[in-house]
Amino acid sequence: MIKHLIVLAVIQAISHIDLFAEIPDRIVDAVGFAESRNTPGMIGDQGSALSAFQIWRSAWDDANAYRIKQGQRPISRSRWTDHDLSREICRSYLALIESRLINAGVKPTPSRLYLCYTMGFAGAKTIGFDPTKAPAVKRKGLARFLSAL
User: Residue 1: how many CA atoms within 13 Å on its side-chain side?
Assistant: First the structure.
């Protein structure tokens, strides 16, 4: 009985951990290359996309919410010029995307991760997570991403 209670306590303690959320450096680096050729301090989309990873406010906020859920500290968007911190937000956002894909019953592949990153999860879902159905500009970004892997 005690052994059973201990097992239940351990399961409850670790149940919030997302075991699929370990995003390799090569994926994060490839996103930076596709988005800005890994140029720190980059500003795009009329000021909406910041850092080498071209992160919009909504994605930054989603990544921070995910970080908090995973027991990590949020990173203020005011720190976007710190390349290492922007890199960690990118990694967190990709982990969130991976989790969403898994929860939707879709196998997370590098192409699908980047497609969701660049189009948003809802946008990628509207095209069935199929890169061949993405707008031309998104397919060009995907090609840069894949070339950097």
Answer: 0
- The torsion angle over the Cα atoms of residues 55, 59, 63 and 65, rounded to 10 degrees, is 140
Instruction: Kindly list the distances between the CA atom of residue 49 and the CA atoms of 28, 46, 56, 91, 118, in Å, as whole numbers in the listed order.
Output: 16, 8, 5, 16, 11
Separation of CA 59 from chain center: 8
Mention every residue, 6+ apart, whose C-beta is less than 8 A from residue 149: 26, 27, 30, 110
Question: 50 forms bridges with which residues in the sheet?
Answer: 43, 55
The CA-CA-CA angle for residues 12, 88, 77, to 5°, reads 105
Say how many C-beta atoms besides its own lie within 10 A of residue 78's C-beta: 7
Tell me the pLDDT tens digit for each residue of 87-138.
999 999 999 999 999 999 999 999 999 999 999 999 999 999 999 999 999 9
